[in-house]
Records
---
Amino acid sequence: MIVKVKVNGAERSADVEPRVLLVDFLRSNLRLTGTHVGCDTSSCGACTVLLDGEPVKSCTMLAVQAEGQSITTVEGLAAGGAMSPIQAGFHEEHGLQCGFCTPGMMLVGTALLDRNPNPSVDEIRWAISGNICRCTGYMNIVKAIQYAAETKRAAATAPTAQPVAAGGGQ
Amino acid sequence: MSSTMHMHGGIGESIKRKEDARFIHGKGNYLDDMVLPGMLHMAILRSPHAHARIKSIDTAAASAKPGVIAVVTGELMAQHKLAWMPTLSGDTQAVLATDKVRFQGQEVAAVIAETKYQAEDARDLIVVDYDVLPAIISPDQAKADGATVIRDDKEGQKDNHIYHWESGDQATTQAAFKKAAKVVRLHTFYPRCHPAPLETCGCVADVSSVTGKAVIYMTSQAPHAIRTVFALVTGLPEQNIRIVSPDIGGGFGNKVPVYPGYVVATAASLLIGRPVKWVEDRSENLISTGFARDFHMTGDLALDENGKMLALRVHLDSDNGAFFADAQPSKFKAGLFHIVTGSYDIPTAHVTADGYYTNKAPGGVAYRCSFRVTEASYLIERLVTNAALEIGMDQAEFRMKNFIQPEQFPYHSATGWVYDSGDYPKAMNVALEKLGYDDLKKDVEKRRKQGEVTGIGIASFTEVVGAGHGADFDILGLRMFDSAELRVHPTGKAMLRMGTKSQGQGHETTFAQIVAEELGIPAADVAVEEGDTDTAPYGLGTYASRSTPVAGAATAMVSRKLREKARKIAAHLLEAAEEDLEWERGKFTVKGSPNKSKTIQEIAFAAYTNIPEGMEAGLEGVHYYDPPNMTYPFGTYAVVVDVDKGTGQVKVRRVVAVDDCGVRINPMIVEGQIHGGLTEGFGIAFMELITFDADGNCIGSNFMDYLLPTAWESPVFELGETVTPSPHHPLGAKGVGESPTVGSPAAYVNAVIDALSPYGVTNIDMPLTADKVWAALRGAGITE
């Protein structure tokens, strides 16, 4: 059957079997391989994507259940060439090692900061507790999300950039 | 993009990782991301029984399903002499079962189809008729009189015994025990657990029917060794085999062995003439691939009347599963377990080990561990804390009293190791100071008087990592050296290739930093590549914390080789004698003429454009490094716990970890490794367990049963360091990735045992789940 969704801002559709999992649809049909499969049982969160802004585990959801909704994957985090604050945070705070859990972690962190721009350490730890990381021991992931929160807060209070003429000024 | 891009990136600088960009953009290149033209998918049918004779296999319905290209059974594999394969421990392992299944999850048949869904649908239609046999799930059952012989496929195998192995001196140890004022015994079981990297194992095999070239993309920590094993198993000429390890989503030892799925996928691609992808699911990973530990250990520690250690005696029974497939150096049947005297000056020791077949998955791998060092460290550190508690001496003081002293290095241990360097009292003192030990002890006393159950655990581990030396350490005869090839391009940028393979350790950054330090080319200008056997020099791979001790040393040595050639070119360019040139990182200067100098970039350009008469062009080299000895990282970990008397739940209040891994190349990466290892150690101590019911059904076959620590349970770590360089490593580095998993489980458990010691509890086997702690409290009469 035909499934139509918006993925990272673009309308996408495909003819899939009703039983096809959302993660397989993203990885195989759309070739968005940044979303990973780690456990098949909703336990590890490597397959986390945002569905209308809410984190969901795409390994235990059918593609057809996402019909008409908006999906954000890791490939949709950067704006053009610029990393999002959460991506910068993971890099700056050494929040990743093997990188396999990282897309899910960053998406959960993004959703958290959208809801709560100033989370406590416990709030961050609780938010990412549905995502397993085997490498980092989580301390630097917490710092990475704090880094992103700070960046976003700083951006929100910074004076608006003034447009400059092409070729002009610093 | 990075805040540290401008830095040179020499040794000791915490530059941000070069490999991060692709991962944070979702552009990593993991095995399952790979799609080749015409690629087929394979699904494996596994045994539901732990032990059963196969009466028949009916593949007709499966073969008839749409999209199915082939159904492979052991019979078909046998026709190609591939039904069995050698293991890394010199045993044999079934690729697809022909006679019996010997563990739940064993590979029985495989379906190759156009899509993954079709392959799995058809797999479920294969009908196997089994004659179920009694399952043996422990060494005690395996050695019982009349036990069913699991390996009746092996000629001459009359029982379930695999090996007997000894180390140390029985006679002197017995004599020392006779003189002892006190003997402390600990019997403990280090249960079976699983490395469970977040990415499971898999491969894409692409064998050309025209050229015979087999390209196998594989989640492998040791691609070169796998290539040679494949050549030996399949008979394919080695130059026609190319193993490529793409980005790996964590390994922790799980991705060292050769698994049947790799062999079947390769055979299928060869027979069908199309690429075949096989990626296991989580349950397949947990029930069939390399487990860890499963050691039943008894240790006796002999003490004199002053609490000085006199001798150590250890026996262990090892549960190796259905095939002896431990990934370890071939000389040592129980791995490097004989490091069990640990950080202590114990004059004599005797270790005996017996391995047994059981109806459980094979493949005792080193889960973030240097070949059974974890089990050894756990036993001695648990035994030492128990001994201190039993004789009423402070745990820290008892350790200090018995440590090998700094002036005793190089130290010859009772079981034959030569420890390279160490300062154990110093690491202990740093830990105690960070902990505020004296105040903490008073606080514990106070809390206990108020009825709280609280305790402190210490573990002062010594690891042995960085295998070889090649004469003593080999895998299937392959000596455990490693390699680095460095090519400096005319514009002064470089490409470094090694025989190791990162699985998250940050090799692309760390090894570039070694070149930056030794050859002066900024780390940002050094690309590091690993994992492709067609391009990288031969090496034994990444496990057992050997990359920095071995390939890191090779990188330093090849950089120095090129620096010597660069000196000759600089002398030519500056019209000076070689001995008149001074090297400072990145350039040669004529002594006394600070304005007369050539940078390494200028020299690199000259290497291709303006070389002295008679010199070979280029600035390239390769170095194979065979370490003269292992390295011996060490440290002291201390844990504070509070136990809830009502529920048995353990709350880890503090973790202080002082590591000495010699010189740190990128401190940020080193600390990241320590965080991760301490968390895996926490999981092993409190949560992770692969166990079996009486019929051999695996309990722990998914992440709802096999519990891994999340951010919610994981403790916060307070790190400290001391630096005692390795005297034989060119950079003084020792390797660190595994120290925290080796050292921390005993610290966590010692803290709980210390907390329960006022109630007479001396041991609880891991994992220390709330129900076990609760039962121990109830057993001690606590009923609140």
Note: The radius of gyration of chain B is 27 Å.
---
Amino acid sequence: MMETKDLVIIGGGSAGMAAAVSAYDHGVKDILILERGPFLGGILNQCIHNGFGLHEFNEELTGPEFLTRFVNQVVERKIPYKLNTFVSNISKDKVVTYSNSEEGYVEIKAKAIIMAAGCYERSAGAIGIPGDRPSGIITAGQAQLYMNEYGYMVGKRVFILGSGDIGLIMARRMSLEGAKVLGVAEIMPYSNGLNRNLVQCLQDFDIPLYLSHTVSKVVGKSHLERIEISQVDDKLQVIPGTVTSFEVDTLLLSIGLIPYNSLLDKMGLVPSRTRGASVNEHMETALDGVFSCGNVLHVHDLVDNVVVEAKVAGASAALYLQDKLPRHTEKITCEPGDGVGYIVPEEIDLANAEDQIPMKFRCRKPTHDVFIEYALNGEVIKSFYKQTIIPSEMEIDIIPKNLLKNNQGKLTVSLKPREVK
Amino acid sequence: MVDIIIIGAGVVGSLIARNLSQYEVSVLVLEKENDVGDVTSMANSAIVHSGYDPVPGTKKALYNVEGNAMYPALCRELDVPFGPVGSLTIALTDAQVDVLKDLQKRGSENGVETKLLSADEVKAMEPNIAPDVKGALLCPSAGVVNPFVLTAHAMENALDNGVKLHLDEAVLNVKRVKDHFEVKTAQAIYEAKVVINCAGLHSEEIAKMIEPVDWKINPRKGEYYVLDHYAPGLVNHVLFPLPSEKGKGILVTMTTSGNYLVGPSSEVIDDKEDFSTDALTLADVKRQATMMVPNIPFREQIRVFAGLRATPSTHDFIIEASKSYKEFINVAGIESPGLASSPAIAMHVVDELAAPVIALSPKKSYNPRVKKYINLQSMSLEERNALIKKDPSFGETVCNCEKISKGEILDILGRSLPCKTIKALKKRSRAGFGKCQGGFCQPKVLLLLAEYYHISPLEVLYDKDGSEILAKESK
């Protein structure tokens, strides 16, 4: 007889733990967290810098400090978890297959599931950096893991491709460890990192940022010896004759994070624009009782926002388990309009929705002097003025439920430049 | 003195070594790289061609058809992933349909069964094919193979049967001395009665150590995209455009692990060490491939790579004794369809070129099979659990993307064939082959290698000498 659990949570990082605590506090007691790593906390274990928790705890914590507070909440509630445990399959009828060295392969039937497995880093191969294939080209998060968990430096003369936050943080970290960081190239004409990281990690260390530049060649037969960067045009194509060379032994890549969604296929779920699942306002996917939150849904810039989202998923799973989250055929679909890359949720069921509905999206490029406009079936229902909106910061707007009125049609969010009169 | 020295442990050298290991002869394989199958045998289309298109009567045609037929049994013995998926050569214009008919005729001259398909038949088999497809030539005998594993398991089986392998040992000179050869490397001078030159791109240089030759090996680069495995399937067969004088063209195929390969380009270059990729070339590969399969999801791209074909100036495989010594055997210019032909090449080299110059008496202890590999994902949960009960390391997942356990990795490390680098282990186990490209598992793999070989993590190589991942301990 297969064991049954009310709620199985895939991933014991910040999203999984916050979801578990929230579900517990909303009345779900039969919970199991499955974590593939040797500790709870996920990626925060290697984020030893500070800057976490300003919203959640009103103070600035390191990654391990932040995660410890959630581990304590999990432990206080005696929520069971399994470490070093890998989930290899979830079936459409919510049978979760996990494995570890003590129990082997186990199948359990879950009444509800929260997917909170995080994201992975885009690799050199994914963008096909031209040139040789030496060692010394490594993702920033992996270099961070080698340094902060294993105690090894990956190189001494470093260049960084991509201005994502992990890259910026590693620029500072490696400088402090005695490496020479020669620069950061960003293919876009703007940075993709948080402003505070640009200041604290690059400017304070005199590390130049080359905007509208990319690595046009890597050279090295066995280990990286040299890279070339080139300027790109407005179509992001390399402009010939703009090469600058740097003799480096390490190229760190901070070129994007992607939801780690390999279990979606098996449940018959189609990846959304974010490459995570598509969810409604309760973080529920197209499959009844399967929820998703955190970086496996869409990549967040602040863990505090992950926690807020995960709490919604946890509370929603509790509602579902109490039969208080019925599916209705009528619902509103949400779509990104002009200037918007994606939006979460992609669906709102007004009959279930809370009074205030958070809408999360990222713009496609930095935009100034602009209105964020929400239109239901073409009719503007809400607009917010923004002096500046940038892709590296997720936008979160609260839409009051009473503005949405009838439970059907299409909600579009677009950026509209302010008309100068 | 050894009986036979094989220079080069690519797929051809490894299969020849394995064939020879069934006889009572001493065999030493010298390989300049730190792993077998590390150059051309590593970076190719991984296709077992049917043999319909080489010019009839050439060695390419003969060995391809013969080699293709040997694959199913060979892959069973060596426990190598092989998929007899068939190939489709696609016609996108009416004129190309006429060419397909000529190709079918050529196929039947080569003894290859083929079938002409209508546009509707092709669309039914390949939902993602270009809508303007006009027809295709189906070759049911074509397949896909894992070339890394084929080469490694062939060499492992040879080693299990008594062959010796020296990695990291490049041949600097070969010289005839009395009735034997002296083969010089940086480490030693070896004496051998017979030398078999399987040096791939460098077979011309090796051959010239003995005598002038009237052929050349020109490196011809091919660049590829690798896409992740995902559902639903992109293609169900190996898809080729019409072949041209430049080769078989840009193909779209699945691999034995469910990934997709798109490529290769065809560029004649000078430098035999140039494995770099180039943005413009790859953009052209993309352009050509999408003419055949318009909606290739390039967002699933996980890697690009370049391989070098050892293209012979003679346009055919060079498989013959040298002019001066029948004991010095050249096996050179093994470009496409070299992988498909390699089992037949190995058989003919041993039976027709080695046998006349050295006594080959069967070895009683010869076992043609490698010890069965453990592939956890292909086993039932009950079977996995029985195994994990005996050895808990099979319950520990190292590579999340490809679902590879620590036990499977330790099994590979414990075998006769050394597996010293992260890349060698990646080629054998697939750990690091998935969408995150080792982002999560590389540190674990690095530590496993350090522990198994009793070296510092700082010394673990990614690939070639000098390719250490870690620079120093942090403060």
Note: DSSP finds seven helices and 28 strands in chain A.
---
Amino acid sequence: MTVSRCQVVCAAILVTGSLWAQSAGTPGYDINYIGPRMADPILQHSKEMYVLYGCSYCHGLYLESRGEATDLMHSRLVGRDENANLIGPLLRAGIPQTAKLSPMPQFSDLSDQQISAIATWIHYARQQGRYKELMEGKDLSSGSAEAGKAYFERTCISCHSMPGDLTRDPGALRASILRPKFLDTPASWQIDRLRDTKTAAARERHLALLENYSADDVANLIAYLSVK
Amino acid sequence: MMTALTRRDFGKCALAGLTASAWAQPAAAVNRSFISGVQFGLQPFCYHDLAMNRENRPTLVKRLVQNGFGMVELHATWCEPRFDAPGVSAEMAREKLRNWRVTTPVDYYRNIKKEFDDAGVTIFTYWVGINETYTDAEIDATYEAAKALGAKGAVGSQGLAVSQRLVPFTAKHGIFTGLHNHDNLSDPDALSNEASFDKGLAYSPNFKATLDVRHFTAGNGDCIGFLERHHERVSSVHLGDRRRNNGRSAPFGEGDAPIIQILRLIRDNRWPIVALLEFEHGTLRTGVEEVQLMFDYCKRALA
């Protein structure tokens, strides 16, 4: 099949138009603030809900909080939240009794889906941020193998009884502890995969760990697993 | 039925008109955002996509003109440098800022005023977050800065205790101090409801209310009643929408704040109260687009 000159010109126009739309933004969508549309439409929708209900103005689009707003990147409540079970009630009630100047408003009129979308974005942004923080964080040689062993036995051993296939390189080990490769595979909605509770549970567990590891936890795990 | 005016009434009207004119139409020409009898301005916090720092000030000026505003409440961060940086502790950054404030000559602020003047934008008030960490010298420098900017007042969300401390400064510098409310009803020091304004305004005749309509509504306050009773002590309203019972911010017309009624009250009584648009509701639109939508809503309310 040959490509005509006309087709090439049309394609060039389309590509140029798309690039222009991405850089200049489109009316009604502030690309400079919200960023380009994400490949995952569910995440994009979650991000838009987070912006649309004003969360980002105080808590930051990527959880870089400003003023007196709670730092969601390091909040213990967010770290313990599962599927908006803690974030949801808090959003609905607000925090009227507070020592802060401006109390957290209540969002009692939001639907379950809207609350869930906001929580989804908070967790996604937190996972991205914590990964970056921990990858750029502390000296990997400072961990305690003994503390790492205790952490491993407390947290990981129910699934990872034999971590022998892990790399011994501390840098690569850190990356695979924080973000195992299987997390990069999108969750499937095929009917025969919907009941795959093992993979779903592993995904949730690892993402929850990523949101809650301290730099010490990671250094200790590396010290333990590197010598094992 | 027409009511005859007494000489005293006429005097009051004339004085109110002069005051309104002095605030609302500051230059020889009519201010571009003096619309249907109401002087509008912007609290540029609304440009959520534009970091409030002095590097972005030229963009701010352009946007104000683009949105049709001739008046602004200028937050100090549009003028002051930032000293927080990697390796600089919060205490160190605070000390550097304090030192910068007390050593910066007033010409620095006069030059900023000129930037706004050249664009036909009047700085109505200077917004500063004065708190207990401010030294007397720092407060003094802040009021000097406000005056050099041409501001009629220095406004902030300071509580009652800090407000009391500002009494001699506002008297000395001859500009008003604006008391701005949030909706924190649990803190007895906070400006939040009418009773707290009663206390704060009683501290000094130079204190004015900067009534934040959004927060007052969220705190279940009665904005109309407040304006009826206190309009002579109100310098401006922060005009936006929120829902009652500590509810969320909402686009104009979707919350519980009586925006249309407030604007008509100001217009029909010729009160020299500046309507400063401010909102915190989320939007996917650009700041300029959203500000325009909210401004157009207000214009329709007065049409």
Note: Chain A has two domains: 36-134, 139-227.
